[in-house]
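Form 7-S
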Amino acid sequence: MDFLFIIFGIIFLLTGLFSGFIAGLLGVGGGIIIVPITYFVLLNLGYNTNIIMHVAIASSLGVIVFTSLSSIYSHIKFQNIDLYVVKKWFLGIITGSLIGSYCASLINTYYLIIIFVTLLFLLSLNMFFQKKTIIITNEFPHSSLKNSFISNLIGFLSALIGIGGGSFSVPILSAYKKPIHKAVGTSACIGFFIAFPAVISYALLGRNISDLPPYSIGYVNLTIVFLTASTSIFSANIGAKLSTRTKTSTLKKIFAVFLFCTCISLIIEHFIY
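Output:
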C-alpha cells in the first residue's frame, strides 16, 4: 500500500508539470488535466465514490491558486495582463465562483461528472475545429450589465467543474479582439480570483463530510494540492514564457484529442464499468 501511495505521489508531481505547462502555454485551466487524473487516482485508492469528484474539483482549484500566481508573475514581466478587463470582471468572477462552488456541493457525483464531461467535450471540439478566432466586436464591452453577466458565468462554470477560467475567458477575450497573449495573461490573473474564493468555499462546505482522504480541509486535499502545485508553478512559468513566441495551433489540436480521450475514459469508468 505504501508503494502504491508513492506511485500516486509521483503521478501528481508529473500531473503538476504537465498541467502547469499547458495552462501557461495555451491559457486553458490546468484543472482540465488535474480533475480527471485526481478522480482516477482517488477511485483506484478506494475512496468514497460519492465525494471523490468534489475532492478532485476542490483540490484542482487549490493547485490553480499557486499556478495562476506563477503565471501572473511571468505575464506581468511581458505586460500581458489587461488590468481594465480585470477591473471590470473582478467582482463578477468572485461572485460566480462562490455560487459555482456552492452549487457543486449540492450536486451528486453522477451528475457532476456528466456536467464535467459535457463541458470538456465541448471545449475539445472548439479547440480542434476552430481554425480562426471568431470576432464579435473590435472593442471590449463597457456595459456593466454585460460584463457582470460574462464574469459571473465564467466564475460559476470554472468553480463548478474546477478547471480555472482560461478555458472560457481566453475565447471570450479573443472574440473581443484582444491579442492572444493578452487574453492568456489576463486569464491567468482571472484564474486566481476564481480559484482562491472557491477553495475557501469548498473547504467550508466540506468540513462535515466523512470519508475524506487524509490531510483534507473540507473537500480540499492538501497532499494533492502541494504535490501538484510544487511542480506546476515552475512549468506554468515556462509555458507562459513560450506562449509569447510559439504558434500553438497544432498543439491545441493534439491537446483537444487528449481531452476527448479523457472524456471517453471518464464515461467508461463511471457509467459502463
